[in-house]
Specification:
By secondary structure, this protein is of the alpha+beta class. The chain is built from 25 helices and 41 strands. Helix content is 28%, strand content 26%. Helix 6 runs antiparallel to helix 7, helix 7 packs across helix 11 and helix 13 crosses helix 16. Homodimer. Interacts with BMP1 and fibronectin. It comes from Oryzias sinensis.
Length: 757
């Protein structure tokens, strides 16, 4: 008879196992890890110094730790199997499972005959030697060593019920679970076995057989005590909880159901999170703030939440000023409280490593563990775990979690920007910022503040840092190429957008942008150097570019360096021309088209700063001459056409200047004069300039040249605008002068851009 029952249960279990759960998959991995120990052995990890054992994930197994604590490896019989004297592994099944069936096929094939078409026959000898008889639920409690639960089932008169007919699921507390129960509570249950203990055990039971694969995440099961719900969570790491009690051994098949052993005694749930907060003496501040923000009602609605609830002491630590500021802004307050709330149930027993979870505020927090303690963002702050409610779980914490959205802009500064924060405080910049205004910090990292920077005169340093504070709150997504930003020092900063970078003047943003209640924070690679001079003024003041400037003047291109625009100039220093004699320079100046070709190859009509370049990627920049420059940033060095740039990112009001010590020349451009070839071979050493007899340089249309407007004020006369325009007239330009008086009316086409042809 038992043989037929075992076969029937096997078929039933086989059908049920068609789709395995996370628990089943982790159990399978545990079997694989222990395969050398014999059949049906599972490898577990036990936290050193505790009795906690886990069927571990690959991550925990690899690190040899659970919750940051060392874990030793144990080999035990998998659930549903037992050892037999003199036999390797765990060959005896306490319930007839598919795993056991395949073990029979492998180890006892000579004693089994199978007819696929007509059914299955298993010899009695195999069953007697390898299968311990399955039992009803009451008997199965003894098999899984839940002897305390078995004893309490006996004295509370639950035994006849779970020995009889039916189909039950029993979540049976282990012996250790009963020992962990508060002694007064346990004594109260035992002293009233016919009511309290009977009801408590019934709350651990469901009137339906449910295997671990049937226990879906977020489901509720109607218990056998007053139809109150049991709350199930099935996590991806294989942990299954019932009211946050972990199933430590599951799927002990019984003739009238199944037994799952859990690690704690569970109690009936009837309250919502709102109910708990409103009656808990230590959560009165949270209750008041939740009421003010409008969030309290949500905590009473159905759902699956995790609330990290700060205690009254936690809010007191913020200080009265901060608390008043938070209370004065309902939206900020709501964001603050939502940052403590997850839209999922995270029971403490399911947390084995640190993981990031999105809060209802929108940003993430990391929940982890350190031994028996839960951690939030790496800090031990959980005072009490697993207050289970009908819409989730509450963990009490002794600190308030401040999201960026609830912080003032000064509070957004982290440890890597602490020097910037200290300096703007010491120099009085932060105190000069209006409390009701919004700002954006462009905060350099600490290592930017070298001894050289810190030795700058304090008044000058204050101005420098004031240019790292924008007048408005501007988030990363609001920045666009060519945008102008105003600092509190009155300077205008330009935005440059590249394929993989966003730069403001010479400095580019790095990851770490934050948005606060009254401002934003962007992290910067270097100190900002706002432009104050044109490219012409920079080169003239430097003094090492006299030859280049003289050649630009000879070519009639000096105004390119003066005019408004967004150019990149690779400026060859006087060193680049050191090999030339005076007559070589005169030869260059005598061939205007050749000279323009060479000079305009050093300019592009866009701003490229080195920090905006993707590392190791060659960027093709079209020069004003027409050919492409090859710009690359690698090994902390910028190169153009393989020529090193010794000094980069000198910001000008009309672009950016990079200094080079060689003259650049387009590789696709030949030369048709032997004399000019000799000069170019002295100048250009990184490529071989090609010679094609008779080749002539073409005139380059100067479409980038702009109208120059000068203002002349004569004493005793109206203001006059003298305008020089370049207009097309055959191959020669003609210059016209027009006057407009202080009425503001300008005649003709003054102010329009027209090309030189």
């Amino acid at each position: 008879m038992k043989l037929l029952l075992a076969a029937a249960l096997f078929v039933l279990y086989t059908f049920d196992s068609a789709d395995s759960s996370a628990y089943d998959k982790i159990l399978t991995h545990s079997r694989i890890r222990a395969r050398k120990e014999g059949p049906n052995v599972c490898a577990l990890q036990q936290v050193v110094g505790t009795k906690k054992k886990y069927f571990s994930t690959c991550r925990n197994w690899y690190h040899g730790a659970i919750c940051g604590k060392k874990a030793t490896v144990l080999y035990e019989c998998c659930p549903g199997y037992i050892k037999l004297d003199g036999m390797r592994g765990c060959p005896a099944g306490t319930s007839f499972t598919p795993f056991f069936f395949f073990t029979i096929l492998q180890n006892q094939a000579h004693k089994i005959s199978i007819n696929i078409n007509k059914g299955m026959l298993i010899s009695k000898q195999v069953i007697r030697s390898l299968v311990a008889p399955i039992d009803h639920v009451y008997g199965s409690l003894g098999i899984v060593k839940a002897s305390s639960t078995q004893k309490y089932a006996d004295i509370s008169k639950v035994r006849p019920e779970i020995e009889g007919s039916g189909s039950f699921t029993f979540f049976a507390p282990s012996n250790e679970a009963w020992e962990l129960l508060d002694e007064d509570v346990r004594n109260a249950l035992v002293s009233n076995v016919n009511i309290e203990l009977y009801n408590a055990l019934h709350y651990h039971m469901a009137n339906k057989r449910l295997l671990t694969k049937d226990l879906k995440n977020g489901m509720t099961i109607t218990s056998m005590y007053n139809d109150l719900d049991l709350h199930i969570n099935h996590y991806s790491n294989g942990v299954v909880t019932v009211n946050c009690a972990r199933i430590i051994s599951g799927n002990q098949i019984a003739t009238n159901g199944v037994v799952h052993v859990i690690d704690r005694v569970i109690s009936a749930i009837g309250n919502s999170m709102q109910d708990v907060i409103e009656v808990e003496d230590d959560l009165t501040t949270l209750s008041d703030l939740a009421q003010t923000s409008g969030l309290l009602e949500k905590l009473g609605q159905p759902g699956h939440y995790t609330l990290f609830a700060p205690t009254n002491d936690a809010f007191d630590k913020l200080g009265s000023d901060v608390l008043e500021r938070l209370q004065s802004d309902k939206e900020v307050l709501k964001a603050l409280l939502s940052f403590h709330l997850l839209d999922s149930v995270q029971c403490s027993e399911a947390i084995m490593v640190g993981s990031s979870y999105e809060t209802l505020e929108g940003n993430n927090i990391e929940i982890g563990c350190d031994g028996d303690s839960l951690t939030v963002n790496g800090v031990k702050m959980v005072l009490k775990k697993d207050i289970v409610t009908k819409n989730g779980v509450i963990h009490l914490i002794d600190q308030v979690l401040l999201p960026d959205s609830a912080k003032q802009v000064m509070e957004l500064l982290g440890s890597s920007q602490s020097t910037f924060g200290d300096m703007i405080s010491e120099l009085g910049i932060s105190t000069s910022m209006a409390s009701d205004a919004e700002y954006t910090f462009l905060a350099p990292l600490n290592d930017v503040f070298t001894d050289e920077v810190m030795s700058i005169d304090q008044d000058d340093l204050r101005v420098i840092l004031e240019n790292h504070v924008l007048k408005n709150k501007i988030m990363l997504g609001q920045l666009y190429n060519g945008q102008l930003l105003e600092t509190i020092a009155g300077k205008t900063l330009r935005v440059f957008i590249y394929r993989t970078a966003v730069c403001i003047e010479n400095s580019c943003l790095i990851r770490g942008t934050k948005e606060g209640a009254n401002g934003a924070l962007h992290l910067m690679k270097t100190l900002l150097k706002p432009a104050a001079k044109t490219m012409f003024e920079i080169l003239k003041q430097n003094g090492n570019f006299k030859i280049f400037l003289s050649l630009m003047e000879a070519a009639g291109l000096t105004d390119v360096l003066r005019q408004e625009g967004s150019f990149t100039l690779f400026a060859p220093s006087d060193k680049a021309f050191a090999s030339l004699a005076t007559r070589d320079l005169e030869l260059l100046k005598s061939n205007k088209n050749a000279l323009k070709t060479i000079l305009l190859y050093h300019l592009t009509n866009a701003v490229f700063v080195s920090g905006g370049l993707e590392v190791g990627v060659t960027n093709l920049l079209k020069s004003l001459q027409g050919s492409s420059l090859k710009l690359i940033f690698a090994n902390s060095t910028t190169q153009v056409n393989s020529v090193k740039v010794p000094e980069a990112d000198i910001m000008a009001t009309n672009g950016v200047v990079h200094f080079v010590n060689q003259v650049l020349y387009p590789g696709d451009m030949p030369v048709g004069s032997q004399d000019l070839l000799m000069v170019l071979r002295k100048l250009v050493t990184y490529i071989q300039v090609k010679y094609i007899a008779g080749f002539k340089y073409q005139e380059i249309p100067l479409t980038f040249m702009k109208t120059i407007v000068t203002h002349v004020v004569k004493e005793g006369e109206p203001s006059t605008i003298m305008t020089t325009r370049v207009v097309k007239s055959g191959s020669k330009p003609r210059l016209f002068k027009e006057e407009a008086f202080s009425t503001g009316r300008v005649t003709g086409d003054v102010g329009e851009e027209e090309p030189w042809f």
